[in-house]
Design a protein that fits this description.
Elements lengths: L1 H11 L24 H27 L1 H15 L5 H19 L2 H4 L4 H11 L9 H10 L10 H14 L2
Helix pairs in contact: 3-4, 3-8, 4-7, 4-8
Length: 169
């Protein structure tokens, strides 16, 4: 009975004899290693996710091959100084048509010509204005002539075509 009283008294009276505690006994530190099963499973999952991401990037790269080919062909046309305006316009329009056929349904694109074709090009990418070259394109493609249209700017037409190929879908 005295021992219970002593403990109660010790906690209630701060002047009472203080208890001496020994040094704190700490457990041994847990070793951090990657040898456990959980780390191996996590590693396999991360490797599989990385491989899946690489596979998806590869598929996107292969899918966009037609864009890179069209851009290279268009840049070759633009760099050819011996090419007439008629040939440049005609070949550029055919490159645009071929590119559109790769991305859009054939029944939607194949029958388009003239102004409806140019409206289609303008509607698919914002900021396009192929309609301003309507007369020059019509003369070059359908009449195989270039009537010195002063409104035609070869560099602007080239840049618009490049932008359309890069951003069309």
């Amino acid at each position: 009975m005295n021992s219970i009283f002593l403990h109660i008294n010790t906690f209630q009276d701060p002047q009472a004899t203080t208890l001496e505690l020994g040094s704190i006994m700490e457990p041994e530190p847990i070793a951090f290693t990657f040898d456990t099963l959980g780390w191996k499973v996590l590693f396999v999952i991360l490797v599989l996710l990385c491989l899946y991401g690489i596979w998806k990037l590869y598929l996107r790269y292969k899918h966009n091959q037609y864009r890179r080919d069209a851009i290279a062909e268009l840049e070759t046309l633009h760099g050819n100084t011996q090419l007439s305006e008629v040939a440049f316009i005609t070949k550029s329009v055919f490159i645009l048509k071929r590119t559109a056929l790769q991305s859009y349904p054939r029944d939607q694109v194949a029958s388009l010509k003239g102004e409806s074709w140019l409206q289609f090009l303008d509607s698919q990418v914002s900021g396009m204005d192929f309609l301003k070259y309507k007369e020059a394109i019509a003369n070059a493609v359908y009449k195989e002539t270039f009537g010195n249209e002063q409104s035609f700017n070869k560099d602007d037409f080239f840049n618009m075509s490049l932008k359309w190929i890069k951003r069309h879908a």
